Amino acid sequence: MIRFECDYTTGAHPKILEALVNTNGEACPGYGVDEHCEQARAMLRELCRAPDAGVHFLVGGTQANTTTIAAILRPHQGVLCAETGHINVHETGAIEATGHKVLGLPSTEGKITAQQIHDYCQAHHTDVAWEHMVQPGMVYLSQPTELGTVYTLAELEAINETCRRWRLPLFVDGARLACGLAASDVTLPDLARLCDVFYLGGTKAGLLFGEAVVIANPNLDHDFRYLIKQRGGMLAKGRLLGVQFEAFLTDGLFLEIGRQEVAQALRLRRAFEEKGWPLFMDSTTNQQFPILPNEAMEALGREYSFEVWAKVDERHTAVRFCTSWSTSDADVAALIASIQNL
Amino acid sequence: MIRFECDYTTGAHPKILEALVNTNGEACPGYGVDEHCEQARAMLRELCRAPDAGVHFLVGGTQANTTTIAAILRPHQGVLCAETGHINVHETGAIEATGHKVLGLPSTEGKITAQQIHDYCQAHHTDVAWEHMVQPGMVYLSQPTELGTVYTLAELEAINETCRRWRLPLFVDGARLACGLAASDVTLPDLARLCDVFYLGGTKAGLLFGEAVVIANPNLDHDFRYLIKQRGGMLAKGRLLGVQFEAFLTDGLFLEIGRQEVAQALRLRRAFEEKGWPLFMDSTTNQQFPILPNEAMEALGREYSFEVWAKVDERHTAVRFCTSWSTSDADVAALIASIQNL
Amino acid sequence: MIRFECDYTTGAHPKILEALVNTNGEACPGYGVDEHCEQARAMLRELCRAPDAGVHFLVGGTQANTTTIAAILRPHQGVLCAETGHINVHETGAIEATGHKVLGLPSTEGKITAQQIHDYCQAHHTDVAWEHMVQPGMVYLSQPTELGTVYTLAELEAINETCRRWRLPLFVDGARLACGLAASDVTLPDLARLCDVFYLGGTKAGLLFGEAVVIANPNLDHDFRYLIKQRGGMLAKGRLLGVQFEAFLTDGLFLEIGRQEVAQALRLRRAFEEKGWPLFMDSTTNQQFPILPNEAMEALGREYSFEVWAKVDERHTAVRFCTSWSTSDADVAALIASIQNL
Amino acid sequence: MIRFECDYTTGAHPKILEALVNTNGEACPGYGVDEHCEQARAMLRELCRAPDAGVHFLVGGTQANTTTIAAILRPHQGVLCAETGHINVHETGAIEATGHKVLGLPSTEGKITAQQIHDYCQAHHTDVAWEHMVQPGMVYLSQPTELGTVYTLAELEAINETCRRWRLPLFVDGARLACGLAASDVTLPDLARLCDVFYLGGTKAGLLFGEAVVIANPNLDHDFRYLIKQRGGMLAKGRLLGVQFEAFLTDGLFLEIGRQEVAQALRLRRAFEEKGWPLFMDSTTNQQFPILPNEAMEALGREYSFEVWAKVDERHTAVRFCTSWSTSDADVAALIASIQNL
User: Fold this and answer.
1) Which of A17, A95, A231 to mutate to test the interface with B (most CBs of B within 10 A)?
2) Preceding omega of C29 cis (within 30 degrees of 0)
3) Tens digit of each residue's pLDDT (9 = 90 or more) over D270-289
């Protein structure tokens, strides 16, 4: 069984693992105030050209999302996001558990537009019964989205402008940002300039675990560590996050891993297209969503793991193949051969 | 600087690290349903002689506490615990953030008694205005306590009996349970028999991170994984927890580490006593709380890290020294020599 | 200005007010355990033919909804309801503020079907990643709906059956139930038999304020008063609710008021239809939603208050006219004359 | 049975009831934006000499407390209050249900001091592990306290100064403020000047229900109506609150009722003292706490209702007698005679 079901099937990239092993014996203070964390923070600030940004390392994406959103919103506010947004569908109501409604917007390929945000805010603030409805208090989007698509720089600029107009903090979930950087014209400095908060995900890009939250808006950084602790996100041996991100940010390893994940995925995409299988989603990143004849799905399922995404019709199903840091040329070649032989 | 400030200053015990390195390349399903997790679950159930217990692996203690408590309580209920309990003082209100009051009981050396629990419940349920007060809905205690003391088996039996009488689930925080097992007559099967839920902590006993939650009461196990996900505790590469606990539970490693931490701490305790320094707390585990003359505190602080605990009088301060899996004989010998030379 | 904007523009029905005045000087215990409350409870139980039901009086609908829903759901569960449901759109996220997601289902005329509930549950419980999604934990519907439509007895029976199959408590918001009883074949005993919880609203049927929550499922009644207090719903002078409901339930006053509100509304409906104005919604209760030419809307707006509901096209707007206990024949006749004269 | 058990046993003061009856037929907009509410707001602003203050009318005290506190605090913050504070003991954890810890301070006669507040903040902000503890985010106190005592102007001035120094909003629960105004040197303009938020309670001073929340700090008033709606406190027929407070604030009725309640209570106090019964609490307001021999308690209990407060020793019990707007000279004379005859 070769695994393409998700991008977190294996352990850490060798360079990450090596860094953990090499520093294992060091005695450090706990809770993320050690020198490795400080060094990784400095590196990320420099990569973002954001010398004053707050940087916080959290174990996982749901924690990063709930901690950030709970830190930003007042009790009567909700978070605007695509209906397909991770916080709206796949976090077991974690945002609602902090007291806030997720305000889902209909989405095309997982994305929302500046115009949608504007229209929602205008409708809310002109309704006579506005106080009876949840106030939009921030915007959440994912780069890349949960469906593998990416925002262009122009789209992000427009969203940023709308957010400023309505005074809505903008938060970008970067669980797969390494791939997003490889597949879009949006850079880390762009994100630091256009977002109030975003994160660079490690879990899906070769770390054992870890997400680096960058708070570009200093008002929102205030007391953030209290919230990390309250939400259960303050790792005792916080140095593990610092050590991993130091290695991840050194010599562009994060970019290299992102590029490699995307390259392997695009090889799969070409194989699907050459086979004549349509794509459920026009993804340019490490998740690919071919629509398979059900017999092909069954046949491939005997040798490869992947995720069933959506029933398209009685005879076809959309599935998801994911590549990761550890997807080898041999894995990809085997899958392509199997496809061609069907 | 030799570090005694806490029990999580260094990385993982060599056997834990080795297991992580050896399994790093394996491809597994995510979220804790891989074979390593299953194996570790089976081992822990057997050690507890609780074949039907639910076992869940979480990254840290605050997560384990909030997830368990939120799973058990109804909205109008609170959790009884010692005023010094970790959930009452050192988790930034994480329990209250789930909507529940922590009902602190005055405590002697970090412990509460069956009688206190009984009296509180009786007072609550006979008050005419009971509905105006938070209903006690469960009991939380720590073994060992935050002050290094331990519950005896007889004490736990009595608390269990009171809890059954008042239908209160009993939850034991075992963040330092490896030491608790070494320093008390309470065993894992005792805990599985007497508690509804408890956990065996790894973070403070040589793992990179990880707590194994054992749910002995099957009613409380129902849907628990939803709550883990909602509270941000479902690690994508869940196998990391399985792999570590497999190693931790093999050939009694967890017991060995607990015994070693305690043994080193008791060597320190003897040195304090021989020096004539009184103990702030009669701890028999890996945290020791000598009361130091302020000049001695200052002198030791130049070479050793430790935590300032409480001002005792103008000239004396209680401090905390912690030992961990990585506290060496040399570290302890050096500190003892420094004490003797003061 | 004659007011048709809502059904709570005036004070209390004369019989309700009289009861309040007559009992004003009595000294009673507080918090709803007085004799008037007990008497009103007994009357409602008898009207429902539910001798064991719990009955609780709350001040308003949002309180009734949040208290009931928070009492029923476990933390990882959400409430299924029509997308247009009051809890989903007009309570400022009150349900989310208790930690729970509202799971909106697409609705036809404000109603949901047994089939929709079944399909949602089946999809949830067969998804491989179910623990990553909010679990449906109960069903909420409104009788009549927010759009004036009603469930038939057959529809409610089918929903009840589906709820039992999936073990979902069924909760009916009866803020306008007096009208619902007048306009459907569903009776109080039917509701008590088919729902786990429902309420009979007083605020919109001639009381100063007050909703009578009937908990037919005794398991859900347990400790309910704690939740009322916690959510701020326990009125100190609780007797005000008992006194009002005593009068409301005496000699069928609640039925009479409901019938009268509906009769006046249907007179308006006929006038709209005769004028040739289409109806935005096929309402048979005290809210009517004609689609007006914009000039007609403006003209009527000079003499009558009503609510703008939805823009239909550039030249037409759906509006809402409400009748209440105090809508007089003269008010209705005046409005009808104005319509005819346009 | 003559009732002294609380100050909300009877209905409304005749002038309040008359106002309700007189305005019953008026048709007004809902939710507190009618002319009666506007007029009452203007009157209260003038009485407070606070022309820019926000004024909001809520049904009850628990609602006023939870809505205000939830509006002010960020998620990691708690509210400092006396251990005996109403929010800490008698609201079923309503504050915790909004996610916030109540930080109880030991209190003398229900009061806390500026020094206590200062010490708590200083200790918090100098602790090395501050982020692991709930941050004090505001101060709550009651005037008069739950034990009948009052803060002097000098005490309030000192607390205000400390709150400014630590940037803590100050919130005063005035559920019995009418009595507090009668029994202290603190006036409404003082409260508006020294507090960020306070309220003037109506329920315990002759209204059917209602508390007038005055938000002197305009930053805290922003979006407050959303929070009222979310917490279930936005009364549909909001005019009921406006009408009652108009009458309450006209010609000093609120002051008159407060003075009368206090005067009757002090007559009782003198009777207790003359009888030689010690006072459990040195109350100068409408709650009196004599310590009764148990036989006297039993004898009085046959004719008068009162609340058992605390067991003092095997033979003595502290009880609470309350006076209200409807406590007549005859009621008081009867009780005094009964005491003298014991």
Assistant:
1) A231
2) no
3) 999 999 999 999 999 999 99
